[in-house]
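Exercise 3.2. Students should predict the tertiary structure of the chain below and write it as structure tokens, then compare their answer with the key that follows.

Predict this chain's 3D structure.
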Amino acid sequence: MPVFLQANFVCGILGLLLHDPSVDAAPDICEGLSLLQHRGQDACGIVTCGPKGRFFQCKANGMVRDVFDEKAISKLIGGMGVGHVRYPTAGSSNHAEAQPFYVNSPYGIVFAHNGNLIDSPSLLQYMDATAHRHINTSSDSELLLNLFANNLQQTGKFRINEDDIFNAIGGLMKQCTGAYACVAMLAGFGIIAFRDPNGIRPVGVASRRSNSGKDYLFASESIVADALGFSEWEDVKPGEAVIITRSGVSRKRVAEHATFAPDIFEFVYFARPDSVLDGISVYRSRMAMGDALAVEVDKVLKERGITVDVVIPVPDTSRVAALNLAQKLNLPYREGFIKNRYVGRTFIMPGQQIRRKNVRRKLNAMALEFSGKNVLLVDDSIVRGTTSKEIIQMAKDVGAKKVIVASCAPPIRYSNVYGIDMPSRTELVAYGRTTQEIAEAIGADLVVFQTLPDLVASVRQFNPSIPTFDCSVFTGEYVTGGVSEEYLHQLESLRADNVKNKLAANALERKGEGSMVNGFHDRETMVASSGPINRADDTVGLHNTWNVS
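Answer key:
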């Protein structure tokens, strides 16, 4: 049976090069990662490059604010660096899985990746049999890093140049299939970003004037550039690589032409509303989603003879669309749910019981906005339906007469293989169900879904040059090709196993069985040895300064 690696679910990546190498990049990288925290709350990491090309690393499980205190940042020396935040997954909670990753040969490379490869079994075979490179974790990000490193190794040069790097990335894009936005750093050389030929996952570049010259930034979303004082934001184009050194910027398309198809779910759910991706304002696109959804809701309500008293958003992502919908239908808009902001997003949490309990911790329904009313709840999407069912029940518990749910996205019926953790098709509430059956499953009186043409038009109107979007979770059509039924079954099986492993690890930790470090037994309780031990949660090659006094 082929070996599958853990997908690197929607994450945030960042690279920074300061023109003045004597100024540390870590404070800006840390601030930038906090602005990308919505893209990943499970783990985070920063690696910087200081004098003589030496790398300094700090990474661990947890939020940016918890991992990077003043002492941690002070140990990250150097005027360029790479940062990463990882989305919570059902896989390993091992802090060695936190990025950025590092290989010492050739030239010393640090690497951060957002996305997922769909041909990892054959690539692992290539790494083992041909490239003779060891993959130490279950992350396909490490696999991508080693593909890049192996291609650079083929030059055989003592020192490489931009053309060598472009050729290495071009070779990588021929070798692998999937979605990937990547940021890399070469010791003493510069920072690099590249994007898969279909441009599924986002990354962009911006610059900032400093006293000594120009600083440069790579980031998943434009909000980082805005907040850190960078301007001239440009998206890295599909199949393009960008190399930045203190001598200048080089850009080149290194992949053959493919259909440009950014993931539409970035606009529906993941990206911050104040970001601009591929020339499209996320905020404006969500406004347009609300306008289009209003037309569909009005049509369905009239067909059913149902009236609505109030429009209430499910916080937070759907607020923009809900407000526009309410205005278009001339209905009152109210904030009926109050959110506890210190509980994370729920659809990615392992185990249905955990998700149900977490919804009640996350939201509180105000009876005065629901009691005796026909309520239209607006949500960005309905995934497993666990959250929707609990929210609907909460509304009814405080007196709502009828609860109608309007979704800004069409029914999600298929797995995402490009880096969003929507695991098994059978876990999706819309899989194999009609709209009426979905309503019954989640306890709603009626469910209205945005149509796919309306969703695409809502986003595409702001950049008509984009020919299409990846809508595979709605259609089951995968823009890269290569996604067979066998692959989907294997992937779903892997993800199900990972859920079980995560729940088992959490149970052990709650019982306090053994001394735990970052969710794993302390090494002294596991093995006695007079020499160094290379365990799965060791950070191989680079000293990790996290939690070191």
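Discussion points: The first strand starts at residue 12 and ends at 17. DSSP finds 18 helices and 23 strands in the chain.
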